[in-house]
Amino acid sequence: MDCPRCSSQIRGNERNCPTCGNDVGYPNVRAAKEYEEKAALAKRYKEALENASRRQCGEAVVAFLESLTSSVAVICRSPSKVKELVSSANELYANFYQLVGAGARRPEGTKMDLQRRIADSIMFPYYENEIRFATLSLDGVGATAYGDCSIVLKDIAISERATVFEENSVLFCEKLRLGVASLLPPGYRATWEDRAMLATAKLEPRIGPATNAAEFPAILIGGTGQDFVEVHIFGALGRDSIERIVARKPKTESDRILLEEIKRHRAVEVLQ
């Protein structure tokens, strides 16, 4: 794109114009707004609604679509990590690249770590260190395989800088055998305001005529919690980005004590 202020060329990873400093928008959001991306998603969405009508479950799919307009972004972490985040206004949620770069974390050197770097170079070329990952949820519970505490983020804190993606981006790139020089196929990511379209395009086949609203959360985050719509958020997150916290019932006394400490700073719903 060209800078709307000075007409200098803007590269895909740039948040500000290198010539005049103008804010040209979040790179992940700009990528999701590209014509080819939106057209491909619109085609998938249209086909999903047509397929639902043929299967005579159009009403259930529309109900699912409408429920998604109030979906939230959720990050799952352990009680100890959440306690650190909520206990200080100075604490920020750091991603993998920031922790490694600061010497606060060692790369595990696993296959998943290596695949993550490849996937991120495809998804967020030259700005992967700015992206925080979350999960789209209907009930405030996220992908609990990543931690027992689900951090529900405020809509106002992320809506302008968040995008959604079809699934775990590492698994998506692995499934399509995408390498470092590969282009991401269009139609599998969307802006935050279009999250309902993307989730419906993906999940329409899982909804039947008798599917009711109580089943929607488990359809959105399925299986063992590894099948989800991924949320990509550009930039920092702090405790004031948090709406509430939904936690599993603590398994140990230390976790119970940590949850009590978390409650001093943020509302916590403990699941039974």
Short description:
With 272 residues, the chain is of the alpha+beta class.
Label this structure with key terms.
272 residues, alpha+beta, eight-stranded mixed beta sheet, 8 strands, 36% helix, 14% strand, globular
Strand content: 5-15%
Largest pleated sheet = 8 strands, mixed
Task: Find the count of extended strands (DSSP E, 2+ residues).
Answer: 8
What's the oligomerization state? single chain
Low-confidence regions: none
If you compute it from the alpha carbons, what radius of gyration comes out, rounded to the nearest whole angstrom?
19 Å
- What does the average pLDDT come to? 94
Overall SS class: alpha+beta
Shape: globular
Percent helix among the residues?
Answer: 25-40%
Gap from first CA to last CA: 51 Å
Strand order of the largest sheet: 5-4-6-2-1-3-7-8
Q: How many DSSP H or I helices?
A: 11
Q: What is the helix/strand order?
A: HHHEHHHEEHEHEHHEEHE
